[in-house]
Every structure is written in structure tokens, then in C-alpha cells.
Amino acid sequence: MGGSGLLAATANATKAGARTRRTRAADGDGTPEQIHLTWGENPATSVVVSWASPEPATRPRVRIGQRLIKAEPRPYTDGINGETVWTYHSRIDGLRPGATYAYAVTADNDSDAADPFTATFRTAPHGRAAFRFTSFGDLATPNDGWVLSYGQSAYAVDTVESFQPLFHLLNGDLCYANLNPATQPEVWRDFGNNNQTSAANRPWMPCPGNHEVEFGNGAQGFTSYLTRYTLPDNRVPGFGGHWYSFRIGSVLFVSLDADDVVYQDAAAFVTGPAALTPVPSTGTPAIGPGTSFYIKGYSGGAQTAWLERTLAAGRRDGSVDWIIVQMHQCACSSSATGNGSDLGIRQEWLPLFDRYEVDLVLNGHDHDYERSFPVRGADANVGHEVATGAVVNTLRPRPVTTTDNGVFDTSQGTVHLTLGCGGNDTNLDDYGTDPADGQRQAKVFTRANRPVPTATADVFTRAGADAVEDATWSARRDTSTGYGIAVFDVHPDPEDFGGRTSITVTQYHAVGADPVNPATGAKGAPTPDYTEFETFTLIRPRRG
Ligand SMILES: [Fe+2]
Known about the structure:
single chain; alpha+beta; seven-stranded mixed β-sheet; 7 helices
């Protein structure tokens, strides 16, 4: 069943990709495409099937066993090019835990109605059970006609499938549609059809990154993102889908929108000299050169308050051992060519991660792989301003050990992983070194890098991070490639490590995929070969 589902997924994606936007018949083309799953409110009993169609679908629906589940239509019109996107969402509840289900997606005007798209998925196990998940961010699409897209993104999706995880965490910067502002819906479509190869078979749980923030698409620019995903309810009015949590086995997963707290200005930006001029039907005014969409603080503290409530409840729950946080931007990244770390996360959220003993934080944003030692607390006044050398308080996370022995007790400190290694075309696996002392060095944003004029009239730029620090928290950096996937195996029942519960983490990487490797200068190309880079184990005392 799984095999035929995979074949069907591939065949339908190909057909959908070849189809044009023209009207084929009076009733339009309601053929499902971009099909993907997310967890419902309880991953053991509910999933959501989401998809799009080229034109409005008539009676869009999911069939599962003898049940027919009507889809909720959620169309939107892109605020730049004026195209309407037709998306559909079917919530499937009342499922059995740890069970495999087949489903079909169709509509009355599905051109494949005689043989509709089918696939299978598995619900989360009930109670304290072992499971596997995978993660990366910064995926893009395989259509290298789009800015930042690259062929590795197709191999990355295939690789998720090869590990057969229960689900995948996609850590923001999904497809960079906001770097292709006149064609945002087309970029999302290529992204969705590429992901379908895996995301129709297992939930892909996303968080927003800076490249989900789009001009013309809502108060924070998230309309494209929020319309395509149905995510667990955070019960915070006005911010549904922006952040959420879900529970599987002994693990509480917490997904955040770090755009709300970071200093860095890295979302939609018109560099100039021309304005970005939306089509008249959108009603969106022209966006002038030097305009960026900066949303720090947009929730007015609502997200951090929710985070504290959620972490506190998790640690009160005797059946929760692990708390794993997903967000896009980084508290601990020492990429030299990338963005680096951000003081906003360190100020706003790291004290909560300390207080509630968050075990693991998964990021994207810098297109590489970096692992921190477990960190707790902060060193004050150890950073320096890049421009002047003056001392800056970067709140540098303090490692609780610098012995890299492959086993880390995360009840003592939080491990941060940068996993922006999905598949876009800009590898950032070039890391900082302090020329004065040879130590690892990280760039840190401690203030907003809003647009500033260049020497060319009407052309603007945004500066890089304003501060640096010696990255005493940095444990491992992959210099051989910017591409990979992290695989997590949760072992809830203590087998060794002195009666502690454990998670085995293995990073697989795609050596040779860098367009240009910064360490060797070697020119590479997309590759399907992912080999082991490192394995380590997280341990903590079992609750209950
Ligand atoms: Fe990013």
C-alpha cells in the first residue's frame, strides 16, 4: 500500500507540474496537488490533509476507509501578482494510535477522478513509545529558475522518505517565495509539489522563517504560509498557526516564530532602484526602494507568555521527559558567511529554556550544520562591537561542559542544533575564527540592521551582524558541506546510561553538494548520497 501510494504521489506530482493554468473545462481544474499532512490536535488520533488545486475544486474531499471527509476551502489572493490560490484542508479525527491508514484525495472536477491520488500515513503511538523523527530547514524548490532554489531540495525530500520517520520538522525558510515577489504562488507550488513525495506520507511540521514574511500578504506577511498549513491550535486569538505545540510519547514539541523576537531585519526587502509595483487589482500600493518588512515584537509579548505557560505545563506533566523546541533563527550559530546568532532570542527565550530545562533547540537560517555544547545561563560583557571594538553584552550562552564525549545530559543544559542544511543554493558552511586568539568566533545581532542607502542612488542594503564573540558554546561544525538531515531516535525506556531516557541523534550529510565548498574551493552539484557525519546521545532522568 505504501509503495503504491509513493508511486501515485510521484506520478500525480509530475502531471500537476506539467499542467498549465489555462481553463481545461467549464468547471475548471480541481485536481489535487501539493498534498501534505500535518498533525491534528492529538497526533495519536488526528491528522490534517491539505492540498491545492489549479482552479476551484468542486466538492473537494478525502476518503479514508468508508468515511468521506469534506474539505474546508481556504483560498487567498496574492497581494503582489493578484493570482488566487485554492487550498483545501480536511481534518481527520477519531483515528487509532500507532495505526497505518490509506487515504485518497479528490473532487468532482479532479482530472484523475477515475484513479485519484492515494497514499498512506501512520498515526503517533499511544503513551510512552519509541519513535523517530527527522529535521532540517531552508529547503527551497528543485526549480533553479527561482532565486535560492536548487536541485538538492528534491534529494532532501527523498532522503526524509528513506529514513521513514514518523514525521519531519521543517525549520522555516520553506521556499523563499519572498525573494521572487512577482511569482510567489508559483514558487510555493513548486515547493508543495516537491514536498508531496514525502509530506503526503507523513506529517511535515513547519515553523515560519524570515522568508515566509511576504509583502502584500497580511499583517505579518504570513498569509501564503498560514493558508497552506493547518497547525495545532495555540488558543491565542489572532495568532493561530504562528506558533504551536504537540505531544508525542514522552516528548513535548514546541514550535515558535522567532521573527517575533529577533533583532535581525531579514524578511521581505525592496533593495531598489525600482519600486516593487503590485498589479492594480490587488490594491496593494507600490513598495518603495529601501522598504523592509520588519515585524519584531508583533505579538506584543503574547508568544513569550504562551511559551512560558506551555513550558511550565510540560514540566508539571509527569509523563513528559523531553522538551524539544523548533524555531528558524539561531541563538547559537557561528557561520561566518551566514547570519550568525541573535541577541533577541537570548534575551527573550533562553532564560525560559533554562528555567524549564528545554533539552534541544532545532534551528535553520544558516545553511550549514553546527552543534552546541549543552548551555545554561550566560556570560555577560564578552562580546565586541564590530565597528569600534567596544565591549557589548551578547549574553553569550555558557557551556556546562566542553568535553565532546558524545553523551550529553540535557537536564543540565540545552543543546542547540543549526540545521539550515535542507536544499537551497547558498551553502554557508564557512565558520568564524577570532584572528586574535584562534578561538571559534560568532557574529551576533544585538540591534536592528534596518536598510541604509548605498553609494548608488535609490539602492539600499542591510548590514550584517554588529557584534562578535568567542563561541565557547560551539562544539561541532560541518566544514565539508552545507547540506544534510538530522535523524532523531527517541528511546523512552531507560536501557543504559544509568537508568536515564535517551535520544540518539545522527547527522547525515551530502558531501559534494556545495556549489562551491568554502574550505576546499571544490565545485559540487546536487547529490542523492547522504552519509553519516556524526552521532551523539542526549540523556536525562526519566519522569514518573
Ligand atoms: Fe532565514
